[in-house]
Every structure is written in C-alpha cells, then in structure tokens.
Specification:
The structure holds 3 protein chains of 3 kinds.
Chain A (H helix, E strand, L loop, with lengths): L3 E12 L2 E12 L3 E5 L6 H9 L6 E6 L2 E2 L5 H7 L1 E3 L12 H6 L19 H12 L15 H14 L4 E5 L7 H17 L3 E5 L3 H7 L2 E6 L2 E6 L1 H6 L1 H8 L3
Parallel strand pairs in A: 3-8, 3-9, 6-7, 7-8
Antiparallel strand pairs in A: 1-2, 1-4, 4-5, 9-10
Chain B lengths: L1 H20 L4 H20 L11 H17 L4 H6 L10 H30 L4 H21 L9 E2 L7 H27 L2 H18 L4 H27 L1 E2 L1 H5 L2 H15 L6 H19 L4 H15 L3 H9 L20
Chain C lengths: L2 H15 L5 H14 L1 H10 L6 H4 L1 H20 L17 H12 L5 H7 L6 E10 L2 E11 L4 E5 L6 H9 L3 E9 L2 E2 L5 H6 L3 E4 L11 H8 L6 H14 L1 H5 L10 H13 L5 E5 L7 H16 L4 E5 L3 H7 L2 E6 L2 E7 H6 L1 H7 L3
Parallel strand pairs in C: 3-8, 3-9, 6-7, 7-8
Antiparallel strand pairs in C: 1-2, 1-4, 4-5, 9-10
The chains are: A alpha/beta, B mainly alpha, C alpha/beta.
C-alpha cells in the first residue's frame, strides 16, 4: 500500500497559448488533509481537473494508489474512489434532497447500488443519517433547487460523503458560507477525515480554514509550484506573502 | 394515493368495458392505448432522462417489418410474395397465423432492443438538440433504407396475412393486444422508476456531468431506458401492422410527421417526466384529435398545432406539472412554508 | 475596575476613529482588547438588549469560551497576522439549528425603527419600511426595516438563507414586493424597475458572482456600464473618468475582461457601476472568492468611495469580521428579520455575535 494516495509528477497542461500548469509535482499522503492555495488564475482548478480526469494532460503522470490514471475519464476515476466537488455548487436541482443523496451512493463494482436497487431500504437510511450530519435533515424532502446557496453547498458535501470516496477533492468549499457555519463544515471535514478515513485535498482562499485544517499546503503561482510545507512555514514565507497573502 | 387508485380503476374499467359499450369505436380506443404506450415509452428517455428523441418511431416501423417478415416467411417465401404484388394469396391456418404472430411480435421487440443498443453507441454521445436531430436522422434513414429493400416490398410494402377469426372479433382481438401491451409498458415503467434507475435517470437529466463525476455509469442507464422503449415500440408496431392489414414505409411504418411527433406532443401536454403525464396527455390529445376529425376535419392539424404551441409557450409544465404546482401536498411534494429559504442568498 | 471600561471605550473610540477600514492593525487591537477586557465584555454584554437570555443562563461556559478565545488570540498575536482574514480559530462549533434557536431568542429583542434611525444619525437618506418581499410566492423578508444616512456604510451579516442578498435585490427591484416601501432621498422608489433604479434613482447594484463580460475589453465593459446614458459620448466621458481614477484599469483597457485577475475583476465590476454616477452602491459580497491580498484592496476602494466621493454603501459580506470592521453600521439578519443592529465595531465586540455569526 503506497503511502502517497495521489502522486502528481511533472504535470503540464496548456490551453491554446495559455500555460495553465507547468511542471507541477506534488503528493497527497493517504489519510491526510492537504491544502492548495494560490492567486486566482494560478492553475489550482486546472490541476484539480487534471487529477480527476476532466481533461487529458500534456505531459507528466498522475498516480492514484500507485496506478497511472492520467488516461482515464472522469467516471472511471470516480469509480476508483476519487471524487471532487465543484466551485459552483452542483446538485440535481429537480430532485429532493434524499434522492440527491441516494443516487450519490457509490457505483463502484460490488457496491449496493445495483441498477434496480430499492429506494426505500438501507441506502435511504444512510442518506438520511448523512443529511442529519450536515444539518439538513429537516429539509430532506424539499426540492434541492429551492435550497439556499449555503444549504446547497452542504448538500453537495453530504452527497460526496455518501459516496464513501477514498479521496475527496474540494474546490473552495467555504466560499460564500457564513463564518459560524464554516466552523461546522471544518469540524465535519475533520471528522470525515478522522472517522471515515477520507483523504482530503482542499483548494481554499480562506486562510482561517486552511491553516486550521490542512497538515500540508502547496502554493501555486502563475502555473508553477511556488512553495510547499507546513501551514506555519508558508504563512511566513516571503514568496507566498508576496504572491498571495499580501503583506501589511 | 387513493387518487391514483381511482385513476387505475377508471381506466381499467374503461379498458375492459369500452369496446363492449362502443363496438363501433373499438379500433379508435385501441389507437388510444397505442398512443398511451408511445407517449409513455418516449418519456423514459425524453422527460425522465432529458434525452428528447425524435426517432423512437424507428422501432415502431422496424418491429412492424420484422413481425411481417416472420409471419410470412415462416410458411412462404417472402421475396416471392412481395414481388407478386398480391397475386399470391397465402392462406394461413389458425395455428400458423397465431404462432407467426406471437413469434413476430416478440422478435420485433427483441430486434428493436438490439437495434437500440447499436444506435445508442452512436447517438448517446450527443446532447440536447443534437441528440434530437441525430435520432430524427436515424428514423429518416431507416425509412429510406426499408424503401429500397425489395425483399420486404420496397416502396410498395407488404400485404399482411389475414386474421383467421370471424370479422366481428377482428377489432376486438387487436384491441386486446394493444391494451395488454399498453398496460405492460405502463407497469414496467412504473416499476423501473420506483427503483434506483429512476433516480439515475433524473440525475442524468438534471446534471449529467455531475452524475458522471459521481461515478454513475450514465451510458448504461441511457441504453437500458432506450432499450425498454424500443422493445415496446417494436411490439406495438408489430400489432399495428397486423391491424392495418397492409404496411408500407412512408405512412404506416415510419409516420414521422404524425405519430413520430405526436408522441412528443402528448408527453409534453400531459407533463413530461411524470408517470401519469404521458398517459393523460395521450388521452387528451387523442380526444382532441378524434373530435376535430369528426367535426372540424379541415382544421384538424391547425387545432393540433395550436395545442402544441400553447403548450410549449405558456404551459410548459403540462397538465401534471400544473396540478403539482396547485396541489403539491397531494403529490407528496413538500413545500417549505414555515422556515425561510432565500433563493440565491449568500 | 474603573480602568477596564475606560480602556474599552478608548479602544472603541480608537477603532472607530481610525477609518474603520485600515485593517489588520485595528483588528489586532480590537482582538487584544477583547482578550484583556473580559469583565467589561460581560458587563456590556449584559447591557446590550440581546444578552438577557442565553448567555445569562450559562455565564460559566461563556467565560470559558472567552478565556479560550483570549488565549488563542494572544498566541496568534505574536504570529504574523494574515491580512484580509484575521486568522482565528475554528473551535466554536454549533449546529445550524442551534444557531437558529439562539438567534431567534436574540431576535426576540429586535431593534425598533427608532433605534435603527438613531444608528443612521437620524438622517434617513435611504429607508426601508416594513418590507415584506420574496421570490415568487415565497416571502423571505418579514416586516424588514432599514435606515442609512447619506455617506454611511452598512453591512448585513447573518446565516446563509437569512435574506441578506434579498434585501439588496429588493432595493434594486429583483424581488416580489408584497408590502412596504423603499424611500431614497425623500422619493418613493419601491415600484421602479432596475433600469429606472439605476438611471433615475441613482442606485447601482454590484453582483456577487463574476459579472464582467469576459470576451469584451475592459473599456467595453465600462461602456456597457453606461448603457442607459442618453448619448454614447456621455458613457465614454464617464469611462474616462474611471480610468483617471483607477490607473490599474487604464493599463489594461484593451485587454479582454476574462484575463483579469480576481482583484482587478472586482475593481472593474465596482467601477463599472460607477459610470452611471450612482449615489447608492449595493455591493453583494465584495470579497467573495478573492485571495487575501486583494480583499484589503477591495475594501480600500470602497472606503475611498465612501469617504472621498460620499457614496452610500450597503453591502452583504460573509467575511463578517472584515465587513463589520469596515462598515459604520451592521445589521444581523436571521430568518428574514433584523436580530441585532449596532455600529460595526460594537457588533465585533459583542460576544454573542462573535459566537453565533463570526465563527468565534
């Protein structure tokens, strides 16, 4: 069992003339919470997209549990156990919350979700439990498209947990969320990490979140890896301050 | 839900008793069940999955031809028969006819399933309007291909074997087949959508990329849904061919501008994406169609066209959608009146 | 004992005097003061109408939480503060329902209209009177009232789904107004369309999400801001004024707006709204999605607009600490109603507000 659940080796990706990622290398340790920070347009989301198979990469390799995945498509990678959430929250807007949860159950080979599994049984129970975990139990029968922005974000997070992924890539999970709820989200992320063993990789702009959550942080800038290390180190790194945090 | 039980009871009674009460209209009522089946199966991929197909009529025609070919070729040479333009008048014994018919119907359905799987590989890569046009293209192509196949009569078609039953039972016989197929299709669809399949279908409709990103094997679900639709369309096509007594590609087997579009219109009118929407839409549409045919013949297609326009412009949610918004509790939809939910608020 | 309250008011005076915008410095000060002034916090807390209920029930745990916070803050004080986000811990975890319940008990002592007007220095340049508004048939705001003076800034904070953006939407005309009125400078603007709000009533709305036209150049985006002007030449002149003011944009006037960095994009969105020379700016989440170094920049721009150009600013800001340190007045919205209203710095110092809405 490799210690690094994700390994990104010298990955480059360009769109037309724009070099979005240039020779990026990073690792995510199994069971850890890794953060990715950097200015807008530095290539964070492109890196995420490359990892989950949203587009092919130009060069380099990406390993998941030791196996090369850079040639696989999104669905295959999701079925291997790597999920991502979206910056613009995406849920199934015409279905109610419980249904959103039920269909998010894992579709890996050997899972409970056969094509004609019942909608009333165990899957539904688990769905309701997780809705309770994120505080949406009372809204479980509402059409998800009618929820407020913050509630939809919670739902998307719960849906990801329902899938029991091995790794969860979160793209700015707390943007637009009210500060007290952020604390709750971080608490649940930590618990998901500690109790369910889900490895997390988080893109964030909220320093309070990242510094309190991540054990390792990578900072990108202009498509390249700028710095990496422990939160305290990066906070004081002059390059990071210059490119991203801003000094005062 | 007692409302639903009442509906089933009413339709069931009408289905069984209808032809007895209105023997002159037996075939019209049979047509009603055919429309119900067409609209319901269209809705599997259309309303529920968001893949609006304009080519489901392909399976109607293919099933029809497969059945006819089997019925004739089991006992006679098909090419000779069609080439003779009716000069050969085959006589089928009862058992010959019925065996041929049953085998033909089943084969029609099964061949269509295979066809849908094959076509699906090509068209399910398309989305939205491209999928609609792609499937329309498939239907047109199939019609033209069949027109060139002399073995099955080409443009002239095939004269169907005669049902060896007394005339007064002819309509009733086909009526029963239509009714049973419609009922079977309805309950198959009802079961399918009560399972995870229904959730997956709606997820594909709401956000297919998200579904893929969550690991749902969307192609598999799309193929299965379309295969079920293809099966029933093939079967009902086979029955319809026998009802008509004579089949040909342009107007009977692949009636694109009429039934091909009607099935979409009916599902939209009744409310797509629901179990009863297509049924109610088919009934309403059929009633309008039949009454305008009787009383306003010159205006029939104008009226039908107007219904379609009003539906699409002002009434997109259809009858079921409208009922659901008026009486949400009766459909088990929870409306959050107590707590405050702000749309689009941070 | 006498010293502490004096220190406290001194701190308050200090933080309000220093244009409530220059950030990490005053924020640090306020934080340090909070850590030191435990007792007076409890006193002022007891004074404030809000804290008659919940905190009174559990003074012990409040003290513990405050002490814990103080220690954490004291430790953080020695570390380099991250500007834009005041650092801080994530220890105060409460469920959404818990927050709602405690907020509801606070809301039971909601501020009266008189108190709101007092916060607006009784100027009442823009007032909302008993507004009931929402989307479709759904009512989000219940008898909501607001009062702001000319050239003041007001920040709305509160849980997600409370109706903050709905307030802005209602002022600008995007919602269904069931009853109540909105008065700007004596003129009833409730029924005006958004275009009229912009062209006649001098109210501009800056959206929450990316709202530049990515394929049009910066200059074209600004010209679009002046779309409602009678003559294109006027729009062009106004755009030139914007370029004079913000050289950063002038440097990029021919670039497509899609290639701007986050901070520049927000700058463009704000300045585009300025083309019509509005008096009132409705800013929906000025710092959302922005990296830390631009957050301060955006607030500096807004501060400049308020202090130098005399604009009246009403904003929604999820980065509540930043928003409250910037704004003169703050309203805490819960479930479509104002639960607490006070000056920005007073709300920052309020431990209940801190616990329930600022993440501790």
């Amino acid at each position: 069992m490799s210690e690094n659940i994700i390994e990104v080796n010298n990955v480059s990706k360009a769109f037309g003339g724009v070099k979005a990622n240039v020779d990026i290398s990073m690792v995510v340790e199994r069971g850890s919470i890794t953060g990715i920070i950097g200015p807008n347009g530095c290539g964070k989301s492109t890196l995420f997209n490359s990892i989950v198979g949203y587009h092919p990469i130009d060069s380099g390799s990406i390993l998941f549990e030791g196996n090369e995945i850079s040639h696989l498509v999104v669905g295959d990678i999701a079925r291997l156990g790597m999920l991502r959430t979206f910056q613009q929250t995406r849920i199934y807007g015409e279905m109610d919350c419980v249904d959103n949860m039920q269909i998010s159950v894992s579709h890996r080979p050997g899972s409970q979700a056969t094509m004609f599994a019942s909608r009333r049984g165990e899957i539904r129970e688990r769905a309701e439990q997780l809705l309770e975990f994120v505080g949406l139990y009372s809204k479980r029968n509402l059409i998800s498209g009618d929820l407020s922005f913050g509630q939809q974000k919670l739902l998307e997070f719960a849906m990801a947990l329902m899938n029991e992924p091995k790794v969860l890539l979160l793209d700015e999970p707390t943007a637009g969320i009210n500060p007290t709820l952020i604390n709750g989200l971080i608490d649940r992320l930590r618990r998901a990490n500690e109790e369910l063993g889900i490895t997390l990789c988080v893109i964030e702009h909220n320093m309070r979140v990242i510094m309190n959550l991540a054990s390792d942080i990578y900072c990108l800038s202009n498509g390249k890896m700028l710095a990496s290390g422990k939160p305290e180190d990066l906070q004081n790194d002059p390059r990071v301050i210059d490119a991203y945090l801003g000094g005062h | 839900m007692t409302n639903e039980k009442i509906l089933y009871l009413g339709l069931g009674i009408f289905g069984i008793v209808g032809p007895m009460l209105f023997p002159n209209y037996t075939l019209q009522i049979a047509m009603l069940w055919i429309m119900v089946l067409m609209a319901s199966t269209w809705d599997i991929t259309g309303g529920q999955m968001g893949y609006n197909s304009l080519g489901n009529i392909t399976f109607f025609g293919v099933g029809m031809y497969v059945c006819a070919a089997i019925q004739v070729s089991m006992f006679y040479d098909l090419a000779e028969y069609t080439a003779s333009y009716g000069a050969i008048k085959p006589v089928f014994t009862e058992s010959q006819y019925f065996i041929g018919l049953i085998l033909g119907i089943v084969a029609g359905g099964v061949v269509c399933v295979g066809l849908s799987l094959l076509l699906g590989l090509a068209v399910f890569g398309l989305r939205g309007p491209y999928f609609a046009i792609g499937t329309l293209g498939v239907a047109v192509a199939m019609r033209e291909i069949v027109t060139t196949m002399d073995t099955v009569g080409g443009g002239a078609g095939i004269s169907m074997p005669f049902l060896p039953l007394p005339i007064e039972y002819r309509s009733l016989f086909f009526y029963v087949l239509c009714f049973l197929l419609a009922v079977a299709a309805h309950f198959t669809i009802r079961w399918m959508f009560s399972t995870q399949f229904g959730l997956a279908a709606n997820a594909i409709r709401d956000d297919e990329d998200k579904a893929e990103a969550m690991g749902i094997p969307t192609l598999r679900y799309k193929q299965f849904g379309w295969a079920v639709a293809a099966f029933y369309m093939g079967c009902i096509g086979a029955v319809f061919g026998n009802m008509s007594g004579y089949i040909e590609p342009q107007n009977i087997a692949f009636p694109l501008p009429t039934f091909g579009i009607f099935m979409v219109a009916m599902a939209l009118l009744g409310g797509k994406g629901t179990l009863w929407g297509p049924v109610i839409g088919a009934i309403a549409f059929h009633i309008v169609k039949e009454t305008t045919w009787t009383y306003l013949l010159d205006w029939q297609y104008i009226v039908l066209g107007l219904v379609l326009i009003v539906n699409i412009v002002y009434f997109q949610q259809g009858i079921m959608g409208w009922l659901k918004s008026m009486y949400p509790e009766k459909f088990g939809i929870v409306v959050d009146k107590s707590t405050n939910v702000s749309k689009g608020d941070a | 004992m006498a010293k502490e309250p004096v220190k406290k008011t001194a701190a308050k005076a200090a933080s309000t005097k220093k244009a409530p915008v220059k950030k990490p410095a005053s924020l640090k000060k306020a934080v340090a003061k909070k850590a030191v002034a435990k007792e007076p916090v409890k006193k002022t807390a007891a004074k404030a109408a809000s804290t008659k209920k919940a905190p009174a029930k559990k003074p012990a745990s409040l003290k513990k939480a405050v002490v814990k916070k103080a220690l954490a803050k004291a430790v953080k004080k020695t570390k380099k503060n991250v500007s834009g986000y005041g650092g801080g811990s994530v220890d105060v975890v409460m469920s959404v329902d818990q927050v709602a319940r405690e907020a509801a008990s606070i809301a039971a002592n909601a501020p009266t209209v008189k108190e709101l007007q007092k916060l607006a220095n009784n100027e009442n340049y823009l007032t909302i009177n008993n507004l009931r508004a929402g989307y479709g048939k759904m009512e989000i705001l219940h008898e909501f009232s607001l009062s702001i003076g000319r050239g003041q800034s007001l920040c709305l904070i509160g849980p997600n789904g409370a109706g903050k953006s709905t307030v802005l939407h209602s002022i600008f005309g995007f919602t269904n107004i069931f009853s109540g009125s909105i008065i700007v400078d004596g003129q009833d603007v409730t029924a005006l369309t958004p275009s009229q709000k912009l062209s006649e009533a001098g109210i501009a709305y800056i959206l929450q999400d990316k709202s530049v036209f990515p394929q049009m150049t910066v200059e074209e985006n600004l010209l679009m801001g002046g779309f409602l002007k009678d003559r294109p030449a006027e729009a062009k002149a106004a755009a030139e004024m914007v370029f004079d003011k913000y050289s950063r944009l002038a440097d990029r006037r021919d670039k497509p707006a899609g290639v701007l960095s986050g901070g520049e994009r927000r700058l463009l969105e704000i300045s585009r709204a300025l083309v019509m020379q509005p008096q009132v700016l409705l800013v929906d989440e000025p710092s959302i999605g922005l990296e830390p170094r631009f957050i301060d920049m955006v607030f500096e721009i807004l501060d400049d607009l308020q202090k130098k150009d005399g604009k009246t600013i009403i904003m929604v800001e999820q980065n509540a600490k930043k928003g409250l340190s910037f704004a003169d007045v703050g309203y805490v919205l819960v479930s479509g109603e104002t639960a607490i209203a006070d000056t920005g710095s007073a709300l920052l110092d309020n431990p209940d507000v801190g616990r329930l809405f600022l993440g501790g």
